[in-house]
Amino acid sequence: MAQHNPEEFVYHYRRGTRVPDYYSFRDELYCGTFPQEWALTHFKGTGPKDCKECVRVGFWNGVFLGYCVACAQGPYSGKRTRGFKNIGEESEDATNRSAFDTYLCCILLDDVGDKDFMDSANLKSKLDLLERTVDDEIAIAVPWFIDRRRNH
Q1: Phi, psi of 29 (to 5 degrees)
Q2: C-alpha to C-alpha distance for 119 and 123, rounded to whole angstroms
Q3: 9 pLDDT band (50/70/90 cuts)?
Q4: Would you list the domain boundaries of the chain?
């Protein structure tokens, strides 16, 4: 039996396409089109192993799509795209390239990763609903709080 080497890129194909659905490297799963050079060279404190915000917003269906806004615009100065502000949502900062215009340009989020492992679209809709419900409850209990939140 072959031994697992976390320093090798291992590609996973499910639909018979030429582009891998995802790959594993250093015990992390990456979108099949995420640049390998970036997976090799995460700055300290960034990426799926070292940044909690990257883990929170940078994954889709269990695979790493991209950096959070703080990492993308901080240490990488926008050179590794705009960064994700929420699950599957990039920052609107037009001064930096969008991942969806570069390495994610031909990818449908629905095809990324493994929904049996993690269904990000379902999770995102539940989180959005929860946030709207909380905002509605706050608006009823403390109406001035919502106006104040919108102005900041």
Answers
A1: -100, 135
A2: 6
A3: confident
A4: 10-118, 119-152
Average pLDDT, the chain: 82
Residue 123 three-state SS: helix
Please state the rounded mean pLDDT for residues 31-52: 95
pTM of the model: 0.75
Contact criterion met (CB below 8 Å) for 83 and 73: yes
CA of 52: how far to CAs of 14, 120, 145, 150, in Å?
29, 17, 28, 26
Residue bearing tokens 């615009």? 73
Other beta carbons less than 10 A from residue 99's beta carbon? 24
DSSP 110: G
| CB atoms inside a 10 Å sphere around CB 52 | 8
For 130, other C-beta atoms within 10 Å of its C-beta total: 10
Q: What are phi and psi of 6, to 5 degrees?
A: -65, -15
N-to-C CA span, the chain = 58
